[in-house]
Design brief:
There is one protein chain. Strands 1-2-3-5-4-6-7 form a seven-stranded mixed beta sheet, sandwiched between helices. By secondary structure, the chain is α/β, with parallel strands linked by helices.
């Protein structure tokens, strides 16, 4: 159940902090509605729902230190989220614990924490909100190995995943010392 569901984007625009980045063009999809919910460890998380069509719920997760709203970037004629909504998907933009919009991003956590607490919670939340048995997922950058880890370790039940696109990063990371 949502702690709140509000349209933070009245007028169908996403803020871009003018004058630094200009004024955003109007959206070509329904305005996103913010939903707050809890991770399995009690951390506050959120999704931004773009009511879509019959192809079912699709969770889009950005890279680390980004908001799911990055999929609504106004730098092109049509953002990725707008395209998916136009194609008939019910789009859910996921702010996991690295999102700068969430207080939990200031705490210590591991990829396993994200896999264990964030991914199962968002899958369960979106399924509960939509009534769908399964959701599709596109996880970009470091949200990708976290989702893979969640599936491999059984934190997220694979029977609830219709399709999964791990974008940019695989499960076995090799990082340099700076990372």
């Amino acid at each position: 159940r949502p702690m709140s569901a509000t349209s933070a984007l009245a007028g169908k625009t996403v803020p871009v902090f003018p004058p630094l980045f200009g004024v955003r063009r109007p959206l070509s999809c329904p305005a996103p509605v913010q939903h707050l919910f809890k991770a399995r460890d009690g951390a506050d998380l959120q999704v931004h729902h773009i009511a879509g069509g019959p192809k079912g719920p699709l969770i889009l997760a950005p890279g680390t230190a980004m908001s799911g709203l990055s999929f609504l970037a106004g730098t092109t004629d049509q953002s990725f989220a707008e395209f998916l909504a136009a194609e008939g998907f019910d789009v859910w933009l996921f702010d996991w614990r690295t999102s700068p919009y969430l207080a939990v991003h200031r705490t210590d956590y591991t990829f396993d924490d994200v896999a264990r607490h964030d991914w199962p919670a968002v899958v369960d939340y979106v399924r509960a909100q939509t009534g769908a048995l399964q959701v599709s997922v596109l996880a970009h950058c470091l949200s990708s190995p976290c989702m893979m880890l969640s599936l491999v370790r059984g934190y997220t039940d694979h029977r609830y995943i219709k399709a999964f696109v791990p974008s940019q990063v695989g499960l076995h990371l090799r990082m340099n010392r700076a990372n």
